[in-house]
Design brief:
The complex is a heterodimer of chains A (about 80) and B (about 230). Helix content of chain A is about 80%, strand content about 0%. By secondary structure, chain A is mainly alpha-helical. Chain A has one domain: Arc Repressor Mutant, subunit A, CATH 1.10.10. Chain B starts with 19 loop residues before the first strand and ends with a helix. Chain B has two domains: about 100 residues, Rna Polymerase Sigma Factor, Chain: A (Orthogonal Bundle), CATH 1.10.1740; about 90 residues, Arc Repressor Mutant, subunit A. Classes of the chains: A mainly alpha (about 80), B mainly alpha (about 230).
């Protein structure tokens, strides 16, 4: 496997859906190629950093407006049915 | 509307063993008592006119839909509109939801469409949902910036600073890559669900996801490389 193929298979590899033969080939390449190893490692960290990032809070005023609009819609639908 | 074939999954929620509202026709579970694993029951109750059941669905997903709206539009007012429109439209069209997908997936599809419409309105000449003509899957530029980030690069920054960095770099992505990344890696949807929400093939999702991940890696490199901290 060459470096270009590693990048093409990167998403499948990181998602754990690469078949076992391809995965073994890719990991063999990684054991010899420091550039690809760094790309794989930093891409994995990129995903982890976003996954672990602090959730965006839902402001209470925004939530209240949503529920007020919903109640209004419930009433309207109730009248028409 | 194309719906995905995934089975319903939920999270944790109300305690089981709920009392049932008995009606002349069939027993209907109280919305507040339906276990969270059973999203389909809530949807069924909401379809039958149980507004408390629909509110339970809203309570369950409002934070996720707001966050998705914020991440796609990068604007609080737009995100509020996206969230509100997604829930109101899903309520209005609940009868058209066939239940052969997760309700959440259907809701996300509505929210993504609303968010992309916001982006198009805001920047009609800048936001295209066509594939940008760039360097293939991005692999040509991958090896230009290869540096070690160390074991915990995010610890270089305070939480608020890190949030700002992540927000900035995701905002710099083309919308089509941004949405693919958010649905797969942030919302945790499957590749198949993402494909159905976006109305594209699984192969196209994989291609967009690869480009999104590589571009984000490249953008984060300037913040996280070891040489920056030493």
């Amino acid at each position: 496997m060459n470096c270009k193929k590693v990048i093409l298979e990167l998403t499948s590899y990181l998602d754990g859906v690469l078949d076992s033969n391809m995965r073994a080939d890719l990991e063999q390449h990684l054991s010899k190629c420091i550039d690809c190893r760094l790309v794989v490692d930093t891409t994995r960290k990129t995903i982890q950093i976003f996954c672990n990032s602090e959730p965006i809070p839902l402001p209470e005023d925004v939530r209240k407006r949503l529920h007020t609009a919903l109640l209004e819609r419930f009433r309207c639908k109730g009248k028409t049915t | 509307m194309v719906l995905c074939q995934m089975s319903a999954t939920g999270h944790c929620a109300q305690p089981p063993g709920a009392p049932w509202i008995l009606s002349a026709s069939e027993p209907k579970p109280l919305a507040s008592m339906i276990v969270r694993d059973d999203e389909a029951q809530l949807v069924s109750a909401a379809k039958g006119g149980d507004t408390a059941a629909f509110e339970e669905l809203v309570n369950r997903y409002e934070r996720k839909i707001f966050r998705l709206g914020m991440n796609i539009t990068q604007n609080r007012e737009d995100a509020e509109d996206v969230m509100q429109d997604a829930f109101l439209k899903s309520y209005q069209n609940l009868d058209r939801f066939q239940g052969d997908s997760r309700f959440y997936t259907w809701l996300v599809r509505i929210a993504v469409n609303e968010a992309l419409m916001k982006l198009r309105k805001r920047r009609p000449n800048q936001v295209s949902l066509d594939e940008p003509l760039t360097d293939g899957d991005g692999q040509d530029s991958v090896f230009r910036e290869i540096e070690d980030w160390g074991p915990s690069p995010e610890k270089k920054f305070a939480q608020t600073e890190l949030n700002e960095i992540l927000n900035n770099v995701i905002g710099e992505l083309d919308p089509i890559f941004r949405v693919a990344f958010l649905l797969r890696d942030s919302e945790g949807l499957s590749t198949e669900e993402t494909a159905q929400i976006l109305g594209i093939s699984v192969a196209a999702v994989k291609s967009r996801l690869l480009r999104a991940r590589l571009k984000l890696r490249q953008k984060l490199n300037k913040y996280f490389r070891r040489s920056e901290s030493q």
